[in-house]
Write a structure and sequence with these properties.
This protein is 46% helix and 15% strand. The N and C termini lie far apart (39 Å). It is globular. α1 (20-31) crosses α8 and α3 (67-81) runs parallel beside α4. The protein has one domain: NAD(P)-binding Rossmann-like Domain (Rossmann fold, 3-Layer(aba) Sandwich). The chain has a 7-stranded parallel β-sheet, sandwiched between helices. The chain has 8 helices and 7 strands.
């Protein structure tokens, strides 16, 4: 017997939806019955991702650091669909660097996208969700927001901020029906991890080292993260808010 679509009738915005985890989340939410707006800065890849899903899903160009852009997007979604039930903040960047080698410019770049982008998205969506009495905010952090890495100082700082921001939002929304949770993947087989591997030298041995960082001995998949995100978007997780959910092959168990 087919399983009922877990987010049927819900309306979702997914940022970073042109590739990687964001793309997988958008695809799985659509498969599970949601109407999905795929938001990304990359027009060509974003439109291709939306065309892959087909109508009624669509692409919206968005710079997550643009406050007015967020307001326009949320207003447009509500005007067209009548509501906003799910926001997945999937856009993010990662640059390597220890406290000795990282630059202030690198930190500011990551902070703008990874933290300010999440803040602006949650703030824009929160007002709508509060007014309608329900909603789920899902923020893609990282295992680097829980477990330190000497060579990812700025990235750890930004992802740790997402973790604590999510908890604060959860407390604000607890009495008005708005849930907020953070998701903490380890190394997932995505373009971002490929870019990190390139920054570390790009050899096959680097990729294998990343895989072996998890006790399960492999990289995770974007689809595995997407299944967790759909759970948090659905009513199955109605009593979960302010949580930090790791999906890391056991890395944080050490």
């Amino acid at each position: 017997m087919d399983r009922p679509a877990r987010v049927a009738g819900k309306v979702a915005i997914v940022t970073g939806a042109a590739s990687g985890i964001g793309h997988a989340c958008a695809r799985q939410l659509a498969h599970e019955g949601a109407l999905v707006v795929l938001a990304d800065r990359n027009v060509e890849r974003g439109q291709a991702a939306a065309e892959e899903l087909g109508a009624p899903h669509r692409f919206a160009q968005l710079e997550v650091t643009d406050e007015e852009g967020w307001t326009r997007l949320v207003d447009e979604v509500v005007a067209r669909a009548g509501r906003l039930d799910i926001l997945v903040n999937g856009a993010g960047i990662g640059l390597r660097g220890s406290i000795e080698t990282a630059t202030l410019a690198d930190l500011r770049q990551m902070w703008a996208v990874n933290v300010e982008g999440v803040f602006l998205g949650c703030r824009a969506a929160f007002a709508v969700m509060k007014a309608q009495g329900s909603g789920s905010l899902i923020n893609l952090s990282s295992i680097a927001g829980i477990v330190g890495d000497a060579d990812l100082a700025g990235y750890c700082a930004s992802k740790g901020a997402v973790r604590m921001l999510s908890k604060s939002i959860a407390l604000s929304g607890a009495k008005v029906g708005v849930r907020c949770n953070s998701v903490h993947p380890s190394f997932i087989d995505t373009p971002m991890v490929e870019e990190l591997a390139r920054q570390w030298g790009g050899s096959p041995k680097i990729r294998e080292r990343l895989a072996q960082a998890a006790p399960m001995g492999r990289l995770g998949t974007a689809q595995e993260v997407a299944h967790l995100v759909v759970f948090l978007a659905s009513d199955e997780s109605a009593f979960i808010t302010g949580a930090e959910l790791t999906i890391d092959g056991g890395l944080s168990a050490r």
